[in-house]
Amino acid sequence: MDEPETPRRFRAVNLLLLLPFAALLWVPSYNRIEPEVAGVPFFYWYQLLWIALGVVVLLPAYLGSRK
Amino acid sequence: MKMDPVAVAIFLALFGFVTLLGFTAGRWRRGDLDHLHEWGLGGRRFGTLVTWFLLGGDLYTAYTFVAVPAVMFGAGASGFFAVPYTVLVYPILFAVFPKLWAAAHAKGHVTAADVVRDRFGSPLLALAVALTGIVATMPYIALQLVGMEVVIAGLGIPTTLAIPGLGAVRDVPLFAAFIVLAAYTYNSGLRAPAMIAIVKDALLYVTVLAAVIVIPAELGGYAKIFASVDAKHLLLPPASAGNLGGQSAYATLALGSALALLLYPHSVTGLLSASSANAVRRNAVILPAYSIALGLIALLGTMAVAAGVKADPAYAQGFKAFGNNFAVPALFLHSFPAWFVGVAFAAVAIGALVPAAIMSIACANLFTRNVFKEFLKPDATHREETRIAKLASLVVKLGALFFIVELPTQYAINLQLLGGIWIIQTLPAVFLGLYLRRLRPGPLLLGWAAGIGAGTWMVVQTGFKPTFPLAIFGITVPCYDALSSLALNLAVALLLSAAANAVSPRKTAAA
Question: At residue B257, does pLDDT exceed 50?
Answer without folding.
Answer: yes
